[in-house]
Amino acid sequence: MSKVKVWKDSLSGDELCSDDYPHKEIFDGAGLEVQGKYIKKGDRDVVNLVDEFNLNEAALSKKDFMAWAKKFLVKTREQLAKDQADRVDGFKKGSTKMVKFIMGKFDECQFWTGSSYDLDGSLVVSYVKDNGKDVTFLYFLDALKAVTY
């Protein structure tokens, strides 16, 4: 039986995604880009990652997102300084690029929390790429803990 890597939010413990989905590291290793897609469930279309990981949509304004990002990035940086000091510089650089990218696409984005709906934990950001078929999810990778089952 093959093992599956599941990424959990280090703050809330919520499972947010797994390596069962096409994924790659982005933004100097500070981000994880995961490809989701629409699936048929009963008589409705749902996004597979939202369905499988019980993600909850969070309605945020730009101001709300920036306030969340400032607090979240400081907490994540402080945790990295304790646990993985060699990642702090890469995280600072990459997470800044990632926040700028999200702000540039803000009107196209949806924001998600894990199943606990903990807004102090990680937010997951999704948007539809140019092809209009697949949904791209962005995660702050340094705020996740990988668990293999």
From TrEMBL:
It comes from the Eukaryota. Gene3D superfamilies: Metal Binding Protein, Guanine Nucleotide Exchange Factor, Chain A. One of its GO terms (cellular component) is cytoplasm. InterPro entries: Mss4-like_sf, Mss4/transl-control_tumour, TCTP, Translational_control_tumour_p. One of its GO terms (molecular function) is calcium ion binding. Residues 4-149 form the TCTP domain. It holds the Pfam family TCTP. This is TCTP domain-containing protein. It comes from Effrenium voratum.
